Amino acid sequence: MNDSHSDRAEISPPVLDQASLDQLSAAARSHVEELDTELHRLWGLGRNIILAWTPAGNGVRVLVIPHYILGEMAAHTGIDSEIEDSLQFVDEVIAGHTLADDEGFDSIAKYFGYEPRLIELSFAPGTDLSNDLIESVVRRYSISYIRNGAVALFDIVGFSLFSPLEQVTQLNSLAYSVNASFSKMLARNLDIQFARSTTGDGFYIWNRDRSVESN
Q1: Domain of residue 117, residue span
Q2: How many angstroms separate the CA atoms of 30 and 48, rounded?
Q3: Both 112 and 169 in a single domain?
Q4: Do 105 and 63 meet the contact criterion of CB atoms below 8 Å apart?
Q5: 7 within domain boundaries
Q6: Is the whole-model pTM more than 0.85?
Q7: Ordered per-residue pLDDT tens for the chain, 215 residues
Q8: Is the distance from CB of 89 to CB of 111 less than 8 angstroms?
Q9: At which of 110, 141, 172 does a domain end?
Q10: Residue 83: strand, helix, or coil
């Protein structure tokens, strides 16, 4: 396998939340919104994922693939060394930042067999808007593989037995409790990059930071 993407090490990705947005200048917020609009269009409400990107003058090149491609690759398990190398390559691609240099980006695009898309922007990536900020926007429409991370699962007991209205009420109550807990942690200066994902009858909760201490 080509190692030109190896600088995409598994590290904690930048996080762009409302607090971070509020600290940006008006021009930077405008650039973020412009990029987000273009990525949202390519994302297609979850039909696709943005696997990688690289700066390209006054724009960025992005690799857009259907969401099911990675699942199909993961299903091809076996002892064949070529299959194992393929799965390892995919794991390495999604384990780190989505930003790649030109050589690494072209290598990834060639491997997956999809033509990169060029997003033309009104600003210069890396100059008018930092690569870290662009990375945080792209990751909204990407996918991450975490080799080691603690996750807490909160399920609502007997959720399927409730009426639809009761289910909504229970989920809102749980969401409020989670948000209240996070607010208390912030008040005590506990540094946590909070994230959550619904399970249908509850939430997965984790810290985006990937250090041992964060777990």
Answers
A1: 18-141
A2: 24
A3: no
A4: yes
A5: no
A6: no
A7: 444 444 444 445 555 666 677 788 899 999 999 999 999 999 998 899 999 999 999 999 999 999 888 878 766 655 566 666 667 778 888 887 899 999 999 999 999 999 999 999 999 999 999 999 999 899 889 987 777 788 889 999 999 899 989 998 999 999 899 888 888 888 888 777 777 877 888 888 888 777 777 77
A8: yes
A9: 141
A10: helix
